[in-house]
Structures are given as structure tokens and as C-alpha cells.
């Protein structure tokens, strides 16, 4: 079963649940892949840490996760 996007999900859970999300993370230069903090940071916290627009990242992650071609 494919993961659904949730505002309180951690970056690690999002990437594990939908590997298509990893592409979005890497495109934004986020270092979440393999980071030990990713299992604690939500999208909001990760966006703030990387000085990125939370709304944009959330939108792109949601699109990647919900895409019929994902994974």
C-alpha cells in the first residue's frame, strides 16, 4: 500500500513510504537522505532547517507521493 502524505510524518517515514519523495528532497539540496535527524524532523522542521519554502516542499512531496507513476 502506498504511503499518504501527512503533515506530522517524519522525513524518514515519507521517504521510506514513497521513494519517489527522495527525488524531491534531493532536487532541493536537502540532506535528509541518510541523515539520522530525518527520523525526527517533519517536513516543516526540515524546510526550516534548510531555509526552504515549506508550502512548496509539501506540495511537491505530496505530488510525488500521490502520482500514479510513483514507485
Can you offer a commentary on this structure?
This protein has 71 residues and is an all-alpha fold. It has one domain. The protein is 49% helix and 0% strand. The chain has four helices and no strands. It has helices at residues 11-17, 20-27, 43-49, 54-66. Helix 2 (20-27) packs antiparallel against helix 4. The N and C termini lie close together (11 Å). The model has no long low-confidence stretch (mean pLDDT 90). This is DUF1858 domain-containing protein. It comes from Mesorhizobium salmacidum.
Which regions are unreliable across 5 or more consecutive residues at pLDDT < 50? Answer: none
Shape: globular
Number of helices, where a helix is a run of at least 4 consecutive DSSP H or I residues: 4
Please tell me the total number of domains: 1
Class by SSE composition? mainly alpha
Topology:
Layout: H1 11-17, H2 20-27, H3 43-49, H4 54-66
Summary, kept brief:
The chain is mainly alpha-helical. The protein is built from 4 helices and no strands.
Write out key terms for the chains shown:
mainly alpha, 71 residues, 49% helix, globular, 4 helices, single chain
Amino acid at each position: 500500500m502506498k504511503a499518504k502524505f501527512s503533515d506530522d510524518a517524519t522525513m524518514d517515514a515519507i521517504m521510506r513510504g514513497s521513494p519517489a519523495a527522495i527525488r524531491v528532497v534531493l532536487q532541493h539540496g536537502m540532506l535528509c537522505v541518510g541523515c539520522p535527524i530525518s527520523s525526527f524532523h517533519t517536513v516543516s522542521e526540515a524546510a526550516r532547517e534548510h531555509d526552504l519554502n515549506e508550502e512548496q516542499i509539501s506540495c511537491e512531496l505530496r505530488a510525488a507521493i500521490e502520482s500514479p507513476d510513483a514507485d
